[in-house]
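Per your request, structure below.
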């Protein structure tokens, strides 16, 4: 799950409330999704998910396909029905329906894009080419970034982590196309092959843009020189997980002094951020490198770099030749996919990205039952109670820290289903007389201006959602101390209105517990109940916590995900803590809910077994080796297989449920199991 977000303040319930009619409800376990020939203690992932994996082999379209993806596919079919129904109708100009319909139709019109080729962005390519001196670069970068072009670093406005009620302008590292620094710096065979393929891709893209081989190669060399320099100074994905190390608040005058050679006031003025007094530079070293590059690199190299980022970001808005070339590298080489998604899926994705809440409003009206929200709120209350009990049970925490932990727990903002107020798209213009690319640039500018208007110099809006209702995911946001569960995830295999508590606490219950535990993982614990970065732990308790969590770091570091490639226990620590804590909390809540009315055996499984089977089924999936490599370098979540086989061996109740003994491969001696929350 993601970490982020907002809503109505929910206080912990006084008592645990059980779901009704548990005995008459279904088990929720689909027996055909299991592989009962597998030994649970040797490979529980295969035991719980093997049938599903066999019946859902990877198609050429996917580099990974799991339960999340299956549900997202189902949601996408529903969205397709909604969107195409609008797109086929006559819609009044300026209405949301007109914007949805015209944008979808433009995304589907490959004929028009193929006829135009690079023409929609040629004026911008020419503007970049017209740069004569280094001082002209950053003003143009500012102008183009409003329209969605990436380059050098990111600028956004979000909560000040030291003053969480107030928004703050922030600079964040960026500017490298491959996302993670290791792709530019590691010298192992697999990474080197990816880097060489990336170079060829850059050359091919410039050739499609009209440059000959020699010119395209020269531009590629300039791009690689700049991006490698940026990568060398960039924070790794693991380093970015330290909130304090990624926060450097300063005045405008301090910014000018630290990073000379850039007219910062003019830069921010072009962005629409006027009168800026203070900001945070998240990572100093990469921005120092940007200042050096902008001032010292030959202007022709800077032109090549900016043109590349324009081409790279626009590929899917141009002709099929550009989109296919982009897919050939990012989809095929980097991720292992063998074919593009059908055009309609890509078109639905674009509409969903631009007009997500408008589509979401239609989605919840048609597909999200009110009773699902009510049952979720009951589950959330019960999980809060259970987490409070788990906090009280920790013998390594002082009473003072426990007291403050309870205060934070009781201050959770809880969001379920959909926002109370919907986004206003009145100012967004989708003009069918303009090109697809021009409309997307206009959409980017709309969202940029909207962010400035809502956030610059303004207090944080706790009603804002950071996911659309149709998203199959959930999140915790530390600066607002909130947990969010969009409507999209409140479906099987995460949630089943017809299944009993064993299933729902094992599936969506663990999701709820997971997001709650993020408030107390290695990152979340550094934020207080108000969302401020603050050390609220009693002296010594933090050190005890680190010792407890080091068990998970060491355990996951020892996992070999591919021959010669280890998992990254430091990068995935927060999510692994949340998985472990989520299971522990959900299991306690499940036991609380059923203590006065124990559940019977159903489909041959005890309620305790069904709890762990439901949890594991969420992570069913197949994945290509290429995608494993991508995730291992960049994703703070462990791979699905290891969210089962890596996490459950640290849960005592799992051993009891399935009779796991020292003879089994997954067995870990009790004294070596993680004990955090």
């Amino acid at each position: 799950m993601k970490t982020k977000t907002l809503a109505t303040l929910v206080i912990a319930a006084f008592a645990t409330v059980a779901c009704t009619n548990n005995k008459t409800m279904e088990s929720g376990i689909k027996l055909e999704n299991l592989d009962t020939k597998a030994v649970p203690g040797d490979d529980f992932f295969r035991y719980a998910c093997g049938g599903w994996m066999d019946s859902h082999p990877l198609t050429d379209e996917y580099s990974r396909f799991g339960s999340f993806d299956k549900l997202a596919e189902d949601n996408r079919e529903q969205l397709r029905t909604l969107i195409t129904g609008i797109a086929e109708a006559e819609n009044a100009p300026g209405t949301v329906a007109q914007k949805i319909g015209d944008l979808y139709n433009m995304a589907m019109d490959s004929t028009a894009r193929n006829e135009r080729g690079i023409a929609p962005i040629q004026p911008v390519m020419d503007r970049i080419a017209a740069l004569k001196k280094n001082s002209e670069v950053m003003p143009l970068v500012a102008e183009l970034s409003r329209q969605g072009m990436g380059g050098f670093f990111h600028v956004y406005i979000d909560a000040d982590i030291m003053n969480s009620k107030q928004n703050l302008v922030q600079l964040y590292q960026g500017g490298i196309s491959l996302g993670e620094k290791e792709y530019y710096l590691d010298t192992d065979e697999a990474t080197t092959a990816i880097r060489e393929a990336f170079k060829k891709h850059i050359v091919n893209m410039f050739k499609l843009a009209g440059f000959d081989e020699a010119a395209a190669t020269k531009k590629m060399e300039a791009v690689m020189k700049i991006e490698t320099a940026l990568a060398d100074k960039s924070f790794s994905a693991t380093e970015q997980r330290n909130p304090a190390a990624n926060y450097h608040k300063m005045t405008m005058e301090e910014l000018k002094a630290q990073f000379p050679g850039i007219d910062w006031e003019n830069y921010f003025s072009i962005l629409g951020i006027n009168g800026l007094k203070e900001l945070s530079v998240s990572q100093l070293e990469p921005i120092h490198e940007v200042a050096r590059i902008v001032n010292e690199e030959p202007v022709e190299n800077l032109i090549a770099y900016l043109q590349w980022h324009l081409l790279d970001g626009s590929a899917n808005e141009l002709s099929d030749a550009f989109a296919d070339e982009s897919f050939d590298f990012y989809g095929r080489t980097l991720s292992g996919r063998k074919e593009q998604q059908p055009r309609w899926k890509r078109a639905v994705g674009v509409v969903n990205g631009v007009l997500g809440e408008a589509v979401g409003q239609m989605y919840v009206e048609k597909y999200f039952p009110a009773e699902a929200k009510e049952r979720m709120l009951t589950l959330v209350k019960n999980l809060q109670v259970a987490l409070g009990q788990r906090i009280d049970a920790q013998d390594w925490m002082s009473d003072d820290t426990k007291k403050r932990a309870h205060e934070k727990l009781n201050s959770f903002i809880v969001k379920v289903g959909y926002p109370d107020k919907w986004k206003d798209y009145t100012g967004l213009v989708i003009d069918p007389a303009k090109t697809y690319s021009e409309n997307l640039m206009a959409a980017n500018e709309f969202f940029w201006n909207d962010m400035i208007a809502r956030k610059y110099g303004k207090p944080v809006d706790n009603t804002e959602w950071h996911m659309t209702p149709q998203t199959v995911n959930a999140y915790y946001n530390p600066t607002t101390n909130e947990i969010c569960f969009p409507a999209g995830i409140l479906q099987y295999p995460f949630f089943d209105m017809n299944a009993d508590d064993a299933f729902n606490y094992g599936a969506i219950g663990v999701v709820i517990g997971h997001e709650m535990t993020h408030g107390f993982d290695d990152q979340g614990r550094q934020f207080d109940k108000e969302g401020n970065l603050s050390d609220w732990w009693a002296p010594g308790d933090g050190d005890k916590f680190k010792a407890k969590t080091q068990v998970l770091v060491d355990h996951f570091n020892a996992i070999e995900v591919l021959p010669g490639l280890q998992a990254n226990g430091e990068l995935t620590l927060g999510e692994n803590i949340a998985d472990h804590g989520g299971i522990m909390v959900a299991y306690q809540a499940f036991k609380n809910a059923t203590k006065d009315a124990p559940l019977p055996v159903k489909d041959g499984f005890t309620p305790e077994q069904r709890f762990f089977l439901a949890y594991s089924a969420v992570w069913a999936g197949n994945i290509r080796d290429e995608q494993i490599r991508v995730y291992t370098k960049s994703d703070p979540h462990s791979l699905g297989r290891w969210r089962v086989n890596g996490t459950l061996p640290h849960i005592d109740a799992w051993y009891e449920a399935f009779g796991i003994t020292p003879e089994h491969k997954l067995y870990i001696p009790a004294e070596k199991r993680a004990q955090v929350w």
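Residues 121-317 form a domain with the Neutral endopeptidase; domain 2 fold (CATH 1.10.1380.10).

Regards,
D.
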